Amino acid sequence: MASQCQYCKGFFNDETTVQRHQAHAPACRKARDEYIQKNLLIRKRRRPRSPQASSSSTVNAEPAAADEPMDVDFSDPTEHAASELPDNDAQDPDPAAPGVGEPFPSKYAAGATHGRAKTKFEHIRDDQILKGAEVLEPFADEEEWELAKWLIKTVGHNQAEAFLKVPIVSDRVKPSFDNKRSFLDSIDQLPIGAGCKIEHVTLTGDLKDENGKPLTETTELCFRDPVECVRELIGNPAFKDVMDYAPTRLFVDAEGKEEFLKEMSSASWWWKMQLRLPIGSTCVPIILSSDKTRLSQQRGDKSAWPVYLTIGNIAKDTRRKASSHATILLGYLPIGKLDCYTDATRSVAKYRLFHYCMGIIMKSLADAGNDAVQMVCADGFLRQIHPILAAYVADYPEQCLISCCMENRCPECTVLPTERGCHGVHRKRDMDETLDYIDRYPREYKNSQFKCEFEKTLGLRPVPPFWAGLPHTDVFEVFTPDILHQLHKGAFKDHLVSWCTAVVGQKQMDARFKSTPSHPDVRYFKNGISMVSQWTGGEYKEMEKSHTTSSLAAMDAALDVFHENKDIFVELNARTQGHFNILKIHSMEHHAPGIRRVGSADGFNKEGPERLHIDYAKAGYRASMIAISPLSSGGSCVDKDALAGVVVVRVG
Fold it and tell me: What segment(s) does the record annotate as region Disordered (predicted)?
């Protein structure tokens, strides 16, 4: 029997289809959310207040208030929708909202202003006015601008030439550009963000040529000045309403016992960092991310290693949207074959190349972090900016690369590989100790005791790190929880699901999932889970958008319960090895502290950089299909799109 959506009156095959429709149709989803909120308000007004509850000041009473949105009448299954894949552009309400805010002490004048000035975008528009140019010039109108964006993002150069020669385009549409050259000339007239720098890096290997001279290899580092990237982001008027300039503590309760953690400004890192900076300073938490990716889907070894930059001042919901352009392509790290090195030394040479290039990129950021730079902010005020590296979004291999530790070790603590299954507090890595050992390595590596401490106890690699000169930065605290790879695809899918399936059997596991009742916040697997051939992350996760003191305590308690009972998997032969020295299991020890430090984990999810690869790496490569600097093709075109779009919005 067909089912009807109560909002658009459309008919669908069954209730499940109706729920999916309501989850993805914007109008119906909005109407459904309004209906839920209306009913919540009615129920809240009707609910009698208890004198004891209103006068209680205990923390234990607070979770009930946070759980209040669940108190809804679910008698009509068409009123709510089972969510399919999480939409990064969606901004769902948080389960708990802060009721009390504690601003940073006024005596420190955090985020203080020093007069007004025009933003870069206002200067661009002023130049257009002085030239007598239209807002969208060199394009005739908004439709032609949309056509240009589509061509540059999705069509290769040769195909663009052919497209513009098609009679229906040249005779009817009649764009101002009639061939590839004039089209690219128009693109080149658009404003662009921070300029691209290219530096050639020559490596001298330990292999020699036929003349006995060491072989060399020259690679190309393409990057932007990170300080100029920060200037562009913090001065973007599009982010005016989603920008924080000072830390704030948020609480769910009036007594200030139940802390609310969502944005970076409400977490502990920013508050502590602001205390270190001079009075009147504005802290800009730098969030870096990097991830090596393949450019070609078919044959070939074309790869890219993009590095991205964003700032924690911008609200995480905005940062997560690729369409908001709140993350900037900072550069491309070189990917060389390093054939001038022997097999024994090539790996270390690659580690050294990474840190050397990152050191070049980050030099100006180190200077600005120490001395401050005056910048025009999105609200039009001047502030003294201290950009400080606060977070680095990377998968586990890159975390090890960044922290200069071996790939069988934890990049945050010194737990031994044989003790990763032990639940408890392990000694954190220390910056000064690590730098001291790396500095001593060339002189003392032949000392057996020193080498044992260096390799066995600390698990380090002898690589001079790029972060040694970064002010106020503890690199072992910049790594954020990788909830995609470590938690959802790692600990949950690869281990817990497989162990539970081994215990109860595939049929029973599928039957349990099939019998799960419908709920708006839980995906329903009508065929169970054994038939899912490709897991993308949305099938087994519902990312937390905020946390409170209680929710983090619950996370810690759940981890305690897991470790207390994990041996049952060995006893039932679901886990064939007799230990749990699994890195992804151990990484959960660092999730709650990471959230307390920089805010909820969905603001630092690894899905973000992977999504950005499409615009900043793969699209530019496929459109050009020639060996050119990536920052001069796909990356800069995306920036021009963003800059021109802001200018249009600003004056529109």
Answer: 39-113
